[in-house]
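TEACHING EXERCISE
Course module: macromolecular assemblies
Task: Read the component lines below, then compare them to the predicted structure of the full complex.
Student: A.B.
Group: 4
Components provided:
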Amino acid sequence: MASRAATLTFEWTMSTLRMKGFPWFPVVILGTLALAAIFADVLAPHSPEVGQLGQRFKPPAWQQGGASQFLLGTDHLGRDVLSRLIFGARVSMVVGLLAVFVAGTIGTFLGILSGYMGKWTDQLIMRVTDTWLAIPALTFAIFLAAILGPSEMNIVIILSAVYWTRYARVIRGEVLSLREREFVRLAIVAGCSKWTIMKRHILPNVLNTAIVIASLQLGVVIVAEAALSFLGVGVPPPKPAWGLMLADGKKGLMAGYWWLTVTPGMCIMLMVLSANLLGDWLRVKLDPQLRQL
Amino acid sequence: MAPLLELKNYSTHYVSARGTRVVKAVDTVSLVLNSGETLGIVGESGSGKTTLALSILRLLPMAARKTDGEILFEGEDLLKKSTEEMRQIRGKRIAMILQDPMASLNPLFTIGDQVSEPLRVHEGTPRRTAWQKATALLKAVRITAPETRVREYPHQMSGGMRQRIVGAMGIACEPRLLIADEPTTSLDLTIQAQYLALLRDLQREHGLALIFITHNLGIVAKMCDRVAVMYAGRLVEFGPVRKIFDQPRHPYTRALLQSIPRFADSRNRLTAIGGQPPDLSAPPLGCAFHPRCPDAIDRCRGEAPPETGTTNGHTVRCWVAGS
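Instructor-supplied answer key:
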């Protein structure tokens, strides 16, 4: 019997390792972006912040008038677009992931507390959430940014302060249905304390939802970060951020300098798309019932 | 010897939010249970069986604002315990199996984690030891290949296995009393029989007292030492199983026994009790059963009958049978 068990475990491990349906596309994209972010100093061919004014508005290398040293062209200050994109990945990754993580933690915690404790705790948390949601997110973010001042860390704080509400709302709803499930009742009957139940029975069951929201929110947060930078209250200017590049590039759009907006736009789109695809895969992978299929 | 569990004139009243409607879900119930014995609580849906069970664990919903009487467990009144003391009693000294054990397992944890949970919560057993104990418990509830099964998830188990796993969780901390609330309603007959046999074996091995809540009189006849028949929140008859099945005194008990389908007289139609159970927020005056009772006399319509005892702890609440 033991050998059969061993074989079963072995086979299971093997099939997990082979990762049928592994989402290569998002992992490769995100992996590349992560590597670019980490090794930006080595990878970037030029300085992201200092340009050569003699080389302004160079088109990408393959277009007429392009130079091979500026693979994706240069901007209005003669800075290399590729180098700025590589360094921008660092800002977007750090800000995006951190903000999603912090917002997710706050939102999940409050959602579970609200849903499970009920009564006035629930009322208090949900009314605060309602109020929070009633304020337009971007306006609120700009307001906070004006108070805190522009810096990368402040953007993380601002974005998590603005976007925790969705987690709290959705997870509260989930918890409301979970707490009526028999296994939660059995845990109560078995003498688990409220905290034990929230930690051991509720949290793992809402984690799926939280991760899926997080993967969707990653896109929202990166776009919001871009929007803040675009509006001038985000990452302070000489630093390269994708949103900032988009903002700077828009002036050149009518003049035919498409690479200034299309390249950072593509980066944002790819990152958001990959995050969503990865989130979807995770959702399936984290459910023991779906995992077997 | 002092009984393990004793209810003295225990009542639970559900009060509506505005306080205008009062439902007497459990009304002045007194009963006794010795350790190692099995008590069956029978009655129609809504007669207060589950409320009674939850009362013992002090897990009543918020609406149950008024409770009265005493619940003595090992000589201590459970109604006087603090919330924390009650939490420590639940699962450790009094365990319960819920109405739908099929849904009682958390889909995200392995069987081993769940069976060992009561041990880790109540006795702080380290994970490794708790798992070993869980394997032993699975063996005790006759799960084949427990070493493999502990590592699997609930959805990989059949209904009967899940049921036995919930049973294993119930006995994990070796409680003195196990309350089973209709534990077999979702199972087919062969599995039911197996499960009941298993419960009886466990009871014998651990000296458990069992409370069986059911509306299946066949199970009561097979499993129980004593029977409590509930009607509209009251205990209408209570006594040793033999007495109740051989000489039922209360007309309701008699009607219940007559409504068991039998193969022998297939020519007759199934006997049913006429009428509906009363609305508990506006129960009929006098004995709650009188509108459906074939033997009702004038006195039944005006006055509620008291509990009258006869020999061998057989009590009945009826004017006709009690006198």
